[in-house]
Write a structure and sequence with these properties.
Number of domains: 2
GO molecular function, one term: sn-glycerol 3-phosphatase activity
Keywords: Cell membrane, Cytoplasm, Membrane
Subcellular location: Cell membrane; Cytoplasm, Cytosol
Protein name: PGP phosphatase
Helix content: 25-40%
Structural class: alpha/beta
Membrane topology: Peripheral membrane protein
Number of helices: 8
């Protein structure tokens, strides 16, 4: 929705739904200043009792041909900056989603593999949950980045090193047929 009226004072007068108790920031191709204003107003009205939740902190999303677009993390950061508070992230690399799934299903981490194309989300989540990790090199990560982390003495960088890597997820097809 558009901002009501021509001036900032008008924007602060748009009606708020009294039932709203959380602001969720996820991927939104129609993110706008109006939505940012509404998110801030809900967070200010509810104070600490109004949750600020983000789906993930991905800074960019890779596209075919090596290009990228801004990721959800950019939108989360905009709301965090306006609200002057940090969002609770429910997606990777936070364990929250894994713990939710693990509480519903009998998951054996020793028999579970996390496959992903990002070190800072997919691989970090897998490693922090005790899963085997497999990096696909079709996303934003390069093998040189992996080698740099692998050769580092920093524990935080070591936590970004996958157990295995493949050039493409298609490389797994022969193994899945067995």
């Amino acid at each position: 929705a558009a901002l009501p009226g021509p001036a900032p004072a008008d924007w602060a007068q748009a009606p708020l739904d009294p039932a709203v108790r959380a602001v969720l920031v996820g991927f939104d191709e129609h993110f706008s200043y109006a939505k940012l204003c509404q998110a801030l107003r809900y967070l200010l009205r509810g104070g600490p009792d109004c949750l600020l939740v983000g789906t993930n902190r991905d800074h960019r999303l890779p596209l075919e041909g090596g290009t990228a677009i801004p990721g959800t993390g950019c939108l989360v950061k905009a709301v965090e900056t306006a609200a002057q508070r940090e969002a609770f992230i429910v997606g990777k690399p936070n364990r929250y989603m894994f713990d939710c799934v693990a509480s519903e299903f009998d998951i054996d981490p020793a028999r579970t593999i996390m496959v992903g194309d990002r070190l800072d989300t997919d691989i970090l989540l897998g490693n922090s949950c005790g899963l085997t990790t497999l990096l696909t090199l079709t996303g934003v990560t390069t093998l040189d980045e992996v080698k740099g982390h692998q050769e580092s003495d920093c524990p935080a960088r070591q936590s970004l090193v996958p157990d295995y890597y493949v050039d493409s997820i298609a490389d797994l097809l022969p193994a899945l047929g067995e």
